[in-house]
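ok trying again, last paste got cut off:
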Amino acid sequence: MRSDIPNNQYSDEIDAFLIARSLWSRVWVIIGVTAIAGIFGLMYAFLSDRVYEARAYLVPPTQSDIADLNTGRTREFELTPYSIEDVYRLFLRNLRSESLRQEFFTTEYLPTLSEDQKAQSQDALYADFLKKLQVLPVTADETGRYSVVAQTSSPEKAVDWVKGYIKHAELLANNEIMKNVSYEAKIRAKNVKQEIDTKRETGETSRGDTITKLRAALSVAQAAGVQKPTVSFGGSPVAGNLEGDMSFLRGVEALNAEIKNLETRSSNDAFIRELRDLQAKKSFYDKLAVAPRDINMYRYDGVVETPETAIKPKKTLVIALALVLGLMLGVLSAFALYRLDEARKNTYS
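nice, full thing came through this time. structure:
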């Protein structure tokens, strides 16, 4: 048994030597297959469609960027100012919204496809679109730095996609925040108007009550023969502002004049306390609801540059992989020919 071990080792060495020699004898097969694979790799690298990538980085706005939005938003008018995080978070919500992606897919991506491509499944096309246009967080902070990446066959189109997508998100977010500001102001103006109407109704009721009281006092004054607003203290006549049960002491002349004045009064506004302050507040809310706002909801961190080189295909990597695969295939082809020759020899021997 021991004598068989060296023989087996020797046999394995002979077989490996024979295989190596047979492969070397078929080196042109290996070279040819490798060359063919390299040619296909070159054709793919230089003839396949180019893919260019544009990228934009976004960061939160500054306080000055949103200053116009907070004009008039003070504690005095019960309006809380918007913070940088509030504005930027609203913008990011629109930037990452599914509705914006679907709209961009319909209006921008589909028109660039050929008729054959459009015939494919909409789900497959949308999945491919999501790979070509992405919104990615750069930092762990929810309201930190974000990037928008677009990949297309044209470098200019890639830049247009990035800027257009961001601009559309800004437009949606701006409309939303302006709508919120306007709605809040309109609601507060409506509440103040209700308070003004209530005070006016109360003032009108109070005027009617006053006229009724004065007429009663007038009847008493006429019966008592009191013509002038006087009252006697220690024999001296003193004019006074008499109210309540003693109001008849104002005299017939004064009561008639006051009743006539109340009945002909066109408005009670000047006699209603705090009414002018409420009217000023309502006017402020009305103007705030329609006032234009010039704000920036984000900032570019750097410049969106037009890409000069394509990210796909990577020529060097493609050619290198083609040569490696060609070499492996060439070796396998040469070995297969060797085995075929060996089988033929065994058949004829």
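cool. Residues 190-290 form a domain with the Helix Hairpins fold (CATH 1.10.287). Confidence is low (pLDDT under 50) at residues 1-5, 232-240.
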